[in-house]
Amino acid sequence: MPPSLTSPFFSALRYSPLLANAALPLRSLFTSSPPPTSPTVQRYLLRQPWSGASRECPTPIILVRAIGLSSAYPSLASSGSGSSPNAEEDGHWEDWGAMFSEKGYTALEVDIAAPSTLTPPSPSASADGAADRTVTQPPPSPLKAMSSLLASQIRLLAIPFPPILVSSEDSCLLTQMYIEDNPASGLVLLDPPSDDAGGSGSASKAAGGNADAWQLPKFGYEPRFPILLMASTDRMGEVEQSRLGKAAANGRSRGGKGVTLERVVDGHRGEKSRIVVERWMDSCGF
Q1: Which three-class secondary structure state does DSSP give residue 182?
Q2: Domain carrying residue 74
Q3: CA nearest 162: which of 68, 226, 84?
Q4: Region entry Disordered: which residue ranges (predicted)?
């Protein structure tokens, strides 16, 4: 006979302080790990505003890392948009998260890992599809599933104000995918991949690399909310010619709406670069 709801087993679950503060749903305690075809959360670190801060900001900051995108998009590792193929895997946001918490922000560090098992679309899927409408549709890009998982983690905060998302290099693809379908108060991109990173699969092969299993997304969101675009010295010219970089020439409207272009001062995790972000947020009224 199954235990009743008043048994010591369920009572322990109901009143456990550990479960009361857990970020995962209760059902995850009783199920096996997610299938390898699904993205996973590898890190979830929430910092509340410091009690000694001069003021508390109601808008949360989400510091995002996307893990394993090069498995689906091999050309990212050779596109020149990142400092190294493993840059995102190595650099957590601890220092930024701690400092923003000290300044009165709710700061969430979250790492979303791509599925460990990827089933890329067949190279002949598009050609066959033109001749046969009954062909099986190719599987969706892993970025879409990763974006949905990121959105669910942000909803766990139960904060009514849309977040400010911060990311660097390849992870900028994930935060921009999130922006396509979800509200945000602001977006910070440090050295995002170029608009034409990866190109077509045939072009990637011609360059001596592996063709991407999925095409990199072309984002269509309007830059009519606060966006901070930061670029390293060696990539400033390229970033200025990107879609968002060109929008920076239009200037900003009230509340910091529009694109602001700044230089990465001391790396993607450096304190001077973080101060640039903090001052930009202050200028936007956050």
Answers
A1: coil
A2: 39-118+138-284
A3: 226
A4: 116-142
